[in-house]
């Protein structure tokens, strides 16, 4: 029994199906084809009108779609439902979806094409072919079931046939094509008849005869309207923003088109607004009412001022304000455009701005001279290069100046310390500055956070820093500073974080004042220098803040800085990883004297620093045994005493360090049995390697006398729960996740950055639109 389905009424069809399924299953299947024979014939006739020509489709140049000749797989006698580009209704066998986009089709489109006989089509995509500037045949109106029509970039030309208005079921219509023309009359009936249209893309279609007010006749189901580069003229009706579903509006590229937004009461779900290369004066009155806005492109000769409330557009992720005249009489005082894709400083209207946050953009060029009245300038994490002009020193109202993480070089202007009478924060971290540090910090210096980490500074640490009595954070790690230990900083009453790591500091570390040195210090990082002599016992005895970091009251965790909604970040080594803490909790405390030439014993008194989270004395020449008092450091999470000359047993007291997650005692001369229990059940061989006389779990040599203690792995004690309490998710999102399983990450948040998909999505979309505009 043959099983070929013709275009018969559905009822018959169902009966046929039923009959078939009850009949013997021995009926042959070789002859059964889902595809209607008629449709197969139509398709083959249709495709035979065109030749295959690689230069007809160039999709790979502007999208991730690869061009290839789908019709090559179309063979007579095979089931057309399995041909490339074809989808059938699997009950009727009718072709309902034809996608021949990017298929290298070349040739004139015949008006008697058999394609028009396939009336079941619901979706037709012929975009990106070369139809040799044919007219769109009026027969297109016969596709009465069509919901999606995409003829974009397929080199049709001429007037759009009126019959397009018969396609009343259309949901999306894409006719982007710069040879096409759509008359006002056709547009009007289109607007009237396409009651279900959601996406209307007429980019580059010549709409010069259309009065823009007729767009208001379009269906209110509209979500995406793109009339860019369409030669529209006159006033675009701003009421379009009252369309309840409109999320994307692209009008740019028509130089004679103007738009102004209503003065108030805008309430619109608009997310994407592109008005480049048109006229959009007076736009700004109510733009901040567009609360859902994510992408805003306004290269449109804007004059006047941006309302400060633009900073309240919390969804905004990309702004392009380039090529405007916003510098004129701009009353804007606060502008936050951080984490955008700003490329050029000229895009920023900053004459009167007092607070500018443009962190994490893509700004290039030289460091700008800020206006004299500026108070906050946050321009970190961009690509600025070149030297800093001493003109900067005129901005003597600055309180926060952060140009860290750029590519700036040269010497730091000598006049910069003058600004310290107003500056609270001076962050120059991670640039390429060299030369001596500016030296003349005046009396009355107010700097609280001074960060020069990761540059190439030389010479001495300026003694005048002692004038900065408010100093809380001093981070000059990773430079070439050649100096002795700055004991003269010990009187600074508020210094909490002192990072001198990876410089050329040398000599003994000793104190002058016995009782009141570094009263607030809780993060000390001297690692990787040339310090010699014994560990500084007297300092250790007096580091009150490390004895009780919560001394200042407040049980609830607070971040450093934050007063000006600017939180301090510092670079620290935690658990063997060098990372940037984007925010620093005021209870964070660590002591790192590793990679120096310290000698002698580890003083017992170190057991008093009970707030310590981390202790690193590795890579020195320390000898003697590990003090039992370390068992008093109950907050300790990492302990590294590796690569010294320590002898004796590992104190049993260390078992009580139930927060400890990283232990490194390797490369010493320790002996005896490794203590067992609690966290010690979790450490691996690597914690002990290079101590030939150590025994017991996890090493293979069992303990003398008692035999090998076999503790099951994973019998953690309660502290593990802390991992979850302290935002373990942050760890999973951060870039060190795999490495540091088992860390307690409550003390900081990583900079996660914008996800890749986001950049691709918005920059990609923008580029596509830009491409359209350029084509015109
Ligand atoms: C291929 O198409 C291009 C235009 O897209 C045309 O100029 C060229 O002549 C065509 N080549 C052939 C062999 O038809
Ligand atoms: C085709 O059949 C599949 C199941 O085999 C079903 O999920 C799908 O909806 C059908 N498609 C149509 C267009 O009927
Ligand atoms: C038509 O095909 C192109 C290229 O494959 C694709 O980008 C586009 O989204 C398709 N159009 C529709 C309406 O699906
Ligand atoms: C392209 O159009 C021109 C002018 O209408 C015509 O002479 C030529 O034969 C067409 N070429 C193809 C390949 O259809
Ligand atoms: C279309 O018309 C041309 C002549 O104009 C003819 O040669 C061709 O067979 C027709 N094609 C169809 C599918 O009717
Ligand atoms: C609207 O579409 C119907 C068919 O769907 C058609 O008969 C009618 O002429 C169309 N109206 C206009 C104004 O084109
Ligand atoms: C044409 O527009 C539709 C509707 O917005 C869209 O889905 C499609 O991707 C567009 N086609 C191309 C080739 O970009
Ligand atoms: C659009 O059409 C008008 C009127 O027909 C014409 O003057 C204008 O040059 C066309 N624009 C383009 C870009 O072809
Ligand atoms: C189309 O818009 C015009 C102007 O806004 C209006 O006068 C007319 O009534 C509208 N027509 C329809 C059918 O909605
Ligand atoms: C704005 O909306 C409010 C409440 O919806 C209304 O009372 C007020 O009159 C509107 N203002 C204007 C200028 O339309
Ligand atoms: C500039 O702005 C002030 C208000 O800030 C206004 O009084 C003045 O008229 C404006 N000047 C011009 C030329 O627009
Ligand atoms: C460690 O704690 C014990 C018991 O609280 C105490 O006796 C001892 O003095 C402490 N050691 C140090 C060095 O603080």
UniProtKB/TrEMBL annotation:
Localization (cell): Cell membrane
Entry similarity comment: Belongs to the RLP family.
Membrane-spanning ranges: 726-750
Record-linked PANTHER family: LEUCINE-RICH REPEAT RECEPTOR PROTEIN KINASE EMS1-LIKE-RELATED (PTHR48061), LEUCINE-RICH REPEAT-CONTAINING N-TERMINAL PLANT-TYPE DOMAIN-CONTAINING PROTEIN (PTHR48061:SF46)
Keyword Kinase attached: no
Keyword set, alphabetical order: Cell membrane, Glycoprotein, Leucine-rich repeat, Membrane, Receptor, Repeat, Signal, Transmembrane, Transmembrane helix
Chief location of this protein within or outside the cell: membrane
Signal peptide residues on this chain, from the entry's feature table: 1-23
Topology relative to the membrane: Single-pass type I membrane protein
Keyword Coiled coil carried by entry: no
GO cellular component: plasma membrane
InterPro entries: Leu-rich_rpt (IPR001611), Leu-rich_rpt_typical-subtyp (IPR003591), LRR_dom_sf (IPR032675), RLP23-like (IPR046956)
Organism name: Rubroshorea leprosula
Organism lineage string: Eukaryota, Viridiplantae, Streptophyta, Embryophyta, Tracheophyta
Protein name listed in UniProt: Receptor-like protein 12
């Amino acid at each position: 029994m043959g099983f070929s389905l013709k275009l018969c009424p559905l009822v018959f069809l169902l009966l046929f199906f039923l009959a078939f399924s009850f009949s013997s299953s021995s009926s042959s299947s070789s002859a059964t084809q889902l595809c209607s024979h008629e449709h197969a014939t139509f398709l083959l006739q249709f495709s035979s009108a065109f030749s295959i020509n690689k230069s007809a489709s160039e999709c790979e140049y502007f999208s991730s779609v690869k061009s290839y000749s789908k019709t090559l797989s179309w063979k007579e006698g095979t089931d057309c439902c399995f041909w490339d580009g074809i989808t059938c209704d699997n009950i009727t066998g009718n072709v309902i979806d034809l996608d021949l986009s990017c298929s290298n089709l070349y040739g004139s489109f015949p008006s008697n094409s058999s394609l028009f006989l396939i009336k079941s089509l619901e979706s037709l995509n012929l975009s990106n072919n070369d139809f040799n500037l044919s007219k769109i045949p009026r027969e297109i109106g016969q596709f009465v079931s069509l919901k999606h029509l995409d003829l974009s970039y397929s080199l049709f030309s001429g007037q759009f046939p009126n019959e397009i208005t018969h396609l009343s079921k259309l949901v999306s219509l894409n006719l982007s094509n710069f040879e096409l023309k759509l008359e006002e009359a056709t547009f009007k009936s289109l607007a009237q008849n396409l009651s279900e249209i959601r996406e209307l893309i007429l980019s580059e279609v010549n709409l010069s005869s259309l009065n823009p007010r007729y767009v208001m006749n379009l269906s209110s189901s509209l979500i995406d309207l793109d009339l860019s580069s369409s030669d529209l003229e006159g006033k675009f009706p701003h009421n379009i923003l009252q369309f309840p579903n409109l999320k994307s509006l692209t009008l740019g590229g028509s130089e004679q088109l103007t738009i102004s937004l209503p003065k108030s009461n805008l309430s619109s779900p608009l997310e994407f607004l592109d008005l480049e290369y048109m006229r959009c004066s007076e736009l700004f009155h109510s733009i901040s009412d567009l609360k859902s806005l994510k992408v805003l492109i306004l290269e449109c000769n804007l004059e006047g001022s941006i309302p400060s409330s633009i900073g309240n557009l919390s969804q905004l992720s990309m702004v392009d304000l380039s090529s405007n005249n916003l510098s004129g009489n701009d009353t804007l005082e606060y502008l936050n455009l951080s984490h955008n894709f700003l490329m050029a400083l000229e895009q920023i209207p900053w004459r009167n701005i007092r607070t500018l946050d443009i962190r994490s953009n893509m700004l290039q060029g030289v460091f700008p001279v800020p206006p004299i009245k500026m108070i906050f300038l946050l321009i970190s994490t961009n690509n600025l290069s070149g030297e800093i002009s001493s003109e900067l020193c005129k901005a003597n109202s600055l309180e926060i100046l952060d140009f860290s993480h750029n590519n700036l070089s040269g010497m730091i202007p000598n006049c910069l310390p003058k600004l310290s009478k107003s500056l609270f924060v001076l962050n120059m971290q991670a640039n390429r500055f060299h030369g001596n540090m500016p030296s003349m910090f005046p009396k009355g210096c107010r700097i609280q956070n001074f960060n020069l980490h990761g540059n190439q500074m030389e010479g001495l640490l300026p003694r005048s820093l002692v004038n900065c009595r408010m100093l809380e954070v001093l981070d000059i790690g990773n430079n070439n500073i050649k100096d002795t230990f700055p004991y003269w900083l010990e009187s600074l009453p508020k210094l909490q974080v002192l990072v001198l790591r990876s410089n050329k500091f040398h000599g003994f570390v000793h104190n002058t004042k016995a009782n009141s040195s570094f009263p607030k210090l809780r993060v000390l990082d001297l690692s990787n220098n040339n310090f010699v002599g014994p560990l500084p016992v007297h300092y250790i005895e007096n580091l009150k803040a490390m004895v009780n970091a919560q001394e200042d009251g407040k049980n609830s965790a607070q971040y450093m800085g934050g007063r000006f909604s600017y939180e301090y970040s510092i670079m620290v080594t935690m658990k063997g990883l060098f990372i940037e803490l984007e925010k620093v909790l005021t209870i964070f405390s660590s002591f790192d004297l590793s990679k120096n030439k310290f000698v002698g014993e580890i003083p017992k008194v170190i057991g008093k620093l009970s707030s310590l989270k981390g202790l690193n004395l590795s890579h020195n020449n320390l000898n003697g045994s590990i003090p039992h008092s370390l068992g008093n450091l109950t907050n300790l999470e990492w302990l590294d005493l590796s690569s010294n000359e320590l002898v004796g047993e590992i104190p049993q007291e260390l078992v009580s360090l139930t927060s400890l997650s990283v232990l490194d005692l390797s490369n010493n001369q320790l002996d005896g049995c490794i203590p067992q229990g609690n966290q010690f059940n979790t450490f691996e061989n690597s914690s002990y390697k290079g101590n030939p006389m150590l025994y017991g779990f996890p090493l293979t040599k069992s303990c003398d006398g008692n035999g090998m203690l076999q503790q099951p792995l994973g019998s953690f004690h309660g502290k593990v729960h802390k991992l979850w309490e302290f935002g373990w998710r942050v760890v999973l999102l951060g870039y060190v996740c795999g490495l540091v399983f088992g860390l307690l990450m409550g003390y900081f948040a990583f900079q996660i950055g914008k996800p890749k998909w986001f950049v691709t999505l918005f920059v990609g979309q923008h580029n596509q639109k830009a491409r359209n505009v350029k084509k015109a």
